Amino acid sequence: MQHGPAVRRRKLGAELRALRTSAGLTSGEAARLAGWHQSKVSRIETGTSGVKPADVRLLLDVYGVADPQLRELLLMLSGSGDGDGRHHWWHAYRGVLPPTYRDFISLESQASAMRTLETTVIPGLLQTPEYARAVTEAALEDASEERLDALVEVRLARQDVLRATPPLELSAVLDEAVLRREVGGPGVMARQLDRLVEAARLPQVRLQVLPFSAGAHIGVTGPFVIFSFSRTSDLDVVVLDHLTSSLHLERKEDLRVYSEAFDALSTHALSPEDSLDFIAGAAAGA
């Protein structure tokens, strides 16, 4: 269980250590060829410190790594762009975004798929501007108008991952309470439900509703997100969001438990087709 980007730092370090070993170099030799002190190579390989993309490129050159896909993957781990043209636009909002939120956005922008259970609010990637503002105002009662505007802008900018090439594949299970909770008033909620209906018809979005009639279920412990990466499953991570922080679970047993939980929730939820009808019915009655 880790906070922030520690998971990816450690994975990057392990990959670089393996490449150094394959190249037949000691850490001292690698450091000499890179023009560094040996301690810098050691810190990178143990994941105890961050590493700049330029440093990763230099090490890959030292180790003779020419495979473009492998280089791209390791640069992604270092925080570089992911090769699909999705850059770190959120850096412009560093003054208003806490580190845990920035890291979540980074994972979201680099992932190929996202599975999420939502028990309280509409997923951020599917929120309307009005709904996003109402949720943000409720979470940050003392926030200035300027900060609220910026946070809503971020929420909406995040949604570009669904329009990217290729788009993020989003699978979401929504507890019925998400649809019934009146956020921002009847008008705001009605428009938000209409937006959900539109989103449910997109090929890259799979929405399922878990009705109250399903009774108690494994998701009662709270919402979670599973990010998956097309280049390697070793990067997959579960994110648990709390009021003041986020936890990242990356052990294979944790990923297995949460993946099985999501599959079980999907089984008990309405089918995507029936869920679309359910959401449309809720929108008509909103």
TrEMBL record:
Residues 16-70 form the HTH cro/C1-type domain. PROSITE patterns: HTH_CROC1. InterPro entries: Cro/C1-type_HTH, DUF5753, Lambda_DNA-bd_dom_sf. This is Helix-turn-helix domain-containing protein. It comes from Streptomyces atrovirens.
